[in-house]
Design goal:
- This is Transporter.
- Keywords: Cell membrane, Membrane, Transmembrane, Transmembrane helix, Transport.
- It holds the Pfam family Mem_trans.
- One of its GO terms (cellular component) is membrane.
- The two termini are 26 Å apart.
- Helix 1 (2-25) crosses helix 10 (172-192) and helix 2 packs across helix 10 (172-192).
- This protein has helices at residues 2-25, 30-52, 57-78, 85-93, 102-109, 111-129, 131-137, 142-146, 149-162, 172-192.
- The chain has one domain (2-192).
- By secondary structure, the chain is mainly alpha-helical.
C-alpha cells in the first residue's frame, strides 16, 4: 500500500515541480494558466465527475455537517489565539483540498473517490469563499461564491445527473473533445498549483 501511495503521489509532485519551474521562468505568463484552470479545467473535471457519480443528498449533508463541525472547532480554538486568530483559523479551515488530492484519490481509489473529493472541494470552497471572510471581516460575501465557475459546474453536473442526462450522450466529435479536456484537466491543474 505504501508503494502504491508513493506511486500515486510522485506524479503529482513532478507536475507541480514542472509548474513551479515554469512559473519562475515565465512569471508574466502565469495569469493565462490561472484563467484556464479556473474557467475551463476545474469546471470540466467537476462537471464530469459530478455527472458520472451523482452523490446522494445524504453524502452532501454528511460532508457539510463534517465540515461544519471542523469549522466550529477551529473557530473556537482560534478565539484562544487572538493575535494570530486569522492565520490560525484560515489555515485550519480553508485548505487546498482539491487539485493536489485529485490524482491521489483517482490513483488509489478510482473515479468514485474522485467524485467525493470534488464534493469535499466544493464544500471547502463554498465555506472558504462565504463564511470564512464573514467571520474574519464581519461581512458575508455571497457574491464571491457566485463568481466561481466551479459552483455552476457542480450544480449542472449534479442536476443533469439526477435528471438522467449524461455528457456521454453528446455527439461523438463533441464527446471526444470533452473527454480530451477532462483527461488533461488534472495534470494541467497540478501544473497551475
Amino acid at each position: 500500500m505504501i508503494y502504491q501511495a508513493f506511486g500515486a503521489v510522485l506524479p503529482s509532485f513532478i507536475m507541480m515541480f514542472v509548474g513551479y519551474i515554469y512559473g519562475k521562468l515565465f512569471r508574466e505568463d502565469i495569469t493565462l494558466f490561472n484563467k484556464i484552470a479556473t474557467w475551463l479545467m476545474a469546471p470540466i473535471v467537476t462537471f464530469a465527475f459530478m455527472n458520472d457519480y451523482i452523490p446522494t443528498a445524504g453524502v452532501l449533508l454528511r460532508y457539510g455537517m463534517g465540515f461544519s463541525v471542523m469549522f466550529a472547532i477551529s473557530f473556537l480554538i482560534s478565539r484562544l489565539h487572538k493575535e494570530d486568530r486569522e492565520i490560525f483559523f484560515t489555515g485550519n479551515v480553508y485548505v487546498n483540498s482539491g487539485y493536489l488530492g485529485y490524482p491521489v484519490l483517482m490513483a488509489l481509489w478510482g473515479e468514485r473517490a474522485l467524485a467525493l473529493g470534488v464534493v469535499y472541494s466544493f464544500v471547502n470552497v463554498f465555506v472558504g469563499s462565504t463564511l470564512l471572510p464573514a467571520l474574519i471581516r464581519g461581512k458575508l460575501e455571497l457574491k464571491n461564491i457566485l463568481k466561481l465557475p466551479f459552483l455552476y459546474a457542480i450544480i449542472l453536473g449534479w442536476g443533469f445527473g439526477i435528471a438522467g442526462i449524461s455528457y456521454k450522450q453528446l455527439p461523438a466529435g463533441v464527446l471526444t473533445a470533452f473527454n480530451w479536456l477532462k483527461e488533461m484537466a488534472i495534470p494541467f491543474l497540478l501544473l497551475q498549483v
